[in-house]
Design goal:
alpha+beta; 5-stranded mixed beta sheet; 7 helices; 18% strand
Length: 344
Amino acid sequence: MKITRWLVLAYLITHDLSIYANAFLGFQGEGNTLPVLSFSHWATISNDYIPNGYESISGFEIASTNAHFIYQNDSLPKTIDDTVLIPFEYKQSSLNYRSTFRLIDSVIKILHSDDSITFSIDGYAYFEEANEEICYWLSMNRALAVKNYVLGQGIDSLRMLAFRGNGKQRSIQRKLNKQEVQYHYTAEITLNYPVPPPAMAIQDIDGDGISDIEDSCRSEYGESVRNGCPDKNAIIVPFELQQSSLVSSTYHVLDSVIVLLRNDPRLTIAIQGFAYKTEGIKTVCNLLSKERAEIARRYLISRQVIASRIASLKNLNNLRQINAGRNPWEISRNARSEIILIRQ
């Protein structure tokens, strides 16, 4: 039985090596390498030939799993792994199709671009292809086909962490990601990207997203256009959350603006309406901010403020806030309109 197994292996290896040699010579010309693919998404490869069993798949789409973290052991470096499927034809373990070479070439291009990326190769067979023993050697030879081609393109063999034939066993990656099975006869290349170092935490006391080093007003929430400082000219007109009706505090602020306008004829104003992001979806926030600006304008006009003294009326939705929204009081402060005094 062992002699038979070794004879089968020897035949498969010599059979495939002759095919690789021909394929290598036939596909080294220009234009046979695809640009780098993003393997966290679907990659569509132009189809030069669709092998038997794949006729119903348009565009010859090659699937990959979404990137996910693998924490193998605390003593080992952490990586982000991405798995690329390499389809084969039924009961075959040779790389015969131009589209397959283009797919593997795009993986090789990624490996050449960064020496820190490692990889592993797994071969699989389908239970209908043969008995358990033949399926094992078929899966091993599919992995071997991919390995020989990758290493033949100048990739250091030390970067290959694993090389396995899995027989009829279903892909672990597809199990983990509950991925729909579209190809039964495959090998898989798993790329292991080093996890980038964590972003340096910035000191930001006021929570406005501007580091204290660059923030001219470290203790006040501001905007980058003002070097982290708030707009000191804006008068905050408060509203209740998810409401645009006047309340006692709203009346108080608007009445104080009316006094300023009466005492200084040179003043004009601009009114802006705002909502906070947690008050509702974008459409709701847009309606609230629009109504808050409009009701402030109407109240001022109802109190004998000439309409020409209102220079502009803007609806800014939920695009700008006046604090980090870290507690209920701060959140309620963002439900507002603002009146900007303009001295001519």
